[in-house]
Structures are given as C-alpha cells and as structure tokens.
C-alpha cells in the first residue's frame, strides 16, 4: 500500500510501532504525549489538542476531526506501547 493511501488509523498505528509516541512520566501530565512524526515533533493533549499544522488549521474548525497524532496518543493510552520518558529531563536538558 502506498503512503498516501493509508488511513488516519493506519498512520497512527505506524507511529506507535515506530515508537513515535512518548508518554510523559508525570501524573500531572497524564493526558500529555510527545508524538514524533515524519515531519516533526508535536505535543498532544488528550482528549483533543495537537500542535501540528493540520490540527491547528483544519481540525480546530471542525469539532469531529482529529489528526492522526491525537489518534496515536489515544491508542497509546489504551495499549501499553508508549514509552515513558521524564519530561523534565527532556525539557531542561535542552
Ligand atoms: Zn497532529
């Protein structure tokens, strides 16, 4: 199957398989995920926020739409595939 024929769900599953979804290891940031996609890194906050262009320019206007980063984070919450990482080390080490 070609890349552009993939559904959003398949793209989200690929992100998970590639270990591109990281959960912040902090109770206060329970719904926060760092998603590393092909074109960049994004912050996802469940149930419905992502910092990618697609979400900001298209999905915000349409209540039922979400980008596949958000889908991937939802999957990650339900299946224990997401690696945890220490967000504070990540932020302060840069
Ligand atoms: Zn997104």
Characterise this structure.
This protein has 94 residues and is α+β, with helices and mostly antiparallel strands. The chain has one domain. It is built from four helices and four strands. It has helices at residues 8-17, 53-57, 68-78, 87-92; strands spanning 21-24, 32-36, 41-45, 83-85. A four-stranded mixed β-sheet has the order 3-2-1-4. A hairpin with a 4-residue loop joins β2 and β3 (41-45). The chain is globular, with a radius of gyration of 13 Å. The model has no long low-confidence stretch (mean pLDDT 81). Zinc ion (ZN) binds at residues 42, 50, 52, 54-55, 67, 69.
Structural class designation: alpha+beta
- Can you tell me the residue ranges where pLDDT is under 50 for at least 5 consecutive residues? none
Count of helical regions = 4
SS elements, strand count? 4
Mean pLDDT across all amino acids: 81
Within the largest sheet, what's the order of strands?
Answer: 3-2-1-4
How widely separated are the two ends?
38 Å
- Proportion in helices: 25-40%
Main β sheet profile: 4 strands, mixed
Bound molecules: zinc ion
Shape: globular
Number of domains: 1
- Tell me what portion of residues adopts beta-strand conformation: 15-25%
What is the ordering of alpha helices and beta strands?
HEEEHHEH
